[in-house]
Write a structure and sequence with these properties.
The protein is mainly alpha-helical. Helix content is 77%, strand content 0%. The chain has 10 helices and no strands.
Length: 213
């Protein structure tokens, strides 16, 4: 019975999050009520509050869900990565970009970023920046894998390098969500350009020679 209850609770939580994502996308964060989310999820308003303390908590849960899913994709990518260092690193960061609009719109990301910055010490803020830390850590894991393959210099710190590369994609992503007219293709083009530039100084001499050949 305990297992059944847990599955039912997990199912209700998924339904509520799916309803929140749908309504946030359609009506915007400010104009979506908890009552509307409950109605779409076919649960009582009190049930929503049993799982989430506020609309902000729902938004943070969607950000966390995005992070969990994109890290799982990243883990699979790192396990089978191939190609030169710049292509491999761009490929991972591109996964982060491509997944970003699955659960949240640009407007929702703007709201999440603003809340995280203005309430950095709140559960929302700490959760948001923890998600960023885990993604940067994963980029560092790919750097380590590329070092083991002889495609990046052994003397660079993978943690620092992963953090630096994530800062690049994070900065470009902030520009992307701030501008409704900016297409994702433009973000990809800038990302590839900057990752290629950074990797030109990180690749091993042998890897650089193979690429030139």
């Amino acid at each position: 019975m305990t297992g059944l209850r847990e599955r039912q609770k997990a199912g209700r939580r998924r339904d509520i999050l799916a309803a929140a994502s749908q309504l946030f996308r359609k009506d915007g964060f400010a104009d979506t009520s908890v009552e509307a989310i409950a109605a779409l999820a076919e649960v009582g308003t009190g049930t929503v509050y049993n799982y989430f303390s506020s609309k902000g908590d729902l938004l943070m849960a969607l950000v966390a869900l995005d992070g969990e899913q994109v890290r799982a994709k990243g883990k699979r990518y790192i396990a089978s990565v191939s190609g030169d260092a710049a292509t491999a690193l761009y490929g991972l960061l591109a996964i982060y970009v491509d997944h970003s609009l699955v659960h949240l719109t640009k407007e929702l990301w703007r709201n999440a970023m603003a809340t995280a910055v203005t309430q950095a010490d709140s559960p929302f803020g700490t959760g948001y920046f923890e998600n960023d830390r885990l993604l940067a850590e994963q980029v560092g894991e790919l750097v380590t894998a590329l070092q083991a393959k002889g495609k990046l210099r052994a003397d660079i710190d993978p943690v620092v390098t992963g953090s630096a590369l994530f800062t690049v994609v994070n900065g470009l992503f902030m520009q992307f969500v701030a501008r409704d007219a900016m297409p994702k293709a433009a973000l990809h083009a800038k990302l590839r350009e900057q990752v290629t530039l950074l990797c030109s100084g990180l690749a091993t001499e042998a890897a650089s020679q193979r690429k030139r050949a």
